[in-house]
Amino acid sequence: MPKFQQQLTQLSKELNQSERFYRQWAKQQGINYNQLITLYELYTQGQCTQKGICEIWIASKQTINTICNVFIKDGVIQISDKTNDDGRERLLKLTTKGTRLAKPIVDKLLALEADVSGQLGTETLKLLIKNMHKLNVAFDAHLEK
């Protein structure tokens, strides 16, 4: 196997391990990964669109739509009167019930993320982000050809 292939395979494994952590952690909290990312975004951002959640977490629109519809039915989130910048999508936000659900889960995850970030340090995280961005730009250039 060529060296580049070994390196990219290892990188893929590491990226998948990070996502696996979030999936397993969500399960330990009694929710699934897609519920976690939805609650996380709504709690940390205050309000956002389904599309915003999908773009940040690379989740399918259908999956997030299903989660949001269940959360709306259960009184966890509500559709805001406000729309996004272009006016085409309504913003979602947590209800009081939703905040009570999300707060302990997301606060616990934020504390965990802060601990991990502290272990790595600001410079390591900046370098990781910078290099991942460079890799994504390089791959994206091949999609546009």
How would you describe the overall organization of this protein?
By secondary structure, this protein is mostly helical. The chain has one domain (29-143): Winged helix-like DNA-binding domain superfamily/Winged helix DNA-binding domain (Arc Repressor Mutant, subunit A, Orthogonal Bundle), CATH 1.10.10.10. The protein has 6 helices and 2 strands, in the order H-H-H-H-E-E-H-H. The chain has a two-stranded antiparallel sheet with strand order 1-2. The radius of gyration is 18 Å and the shape is globular.
CATH hierarchy class name: Mainly Alpha
Element pattern in H and E: HHHHEEHH
Rg from Cα: 18 Å
Mean pLDDT: 93
Assess the beta-strand content as a share of residues: 5-15%
Q: Care to count the β-strands?
A: 2
Globally, the shape reads globular
Count of helical regions: 6
The poorly predicted ranges are: none
**Helix amount, in percent?**
over 70%
Task: Please tell me the total number of domains.
Answer: 1
CATH superfamily, please?
A: Winged helix-like DNA-binding domain superfamily/Winged helix DNA-binding domain
CATH architecture grouping = Orthogonal Bundle
The CATH topology is what? Arc Repressor Mutant, subunit A
Class by SSE composition: mainly alpha
Protein name: Transcriptional regulator, MarR family
Pfam families: MarR_2 (PF12802)
GO molecular function: DNA-binding transcription factor activity
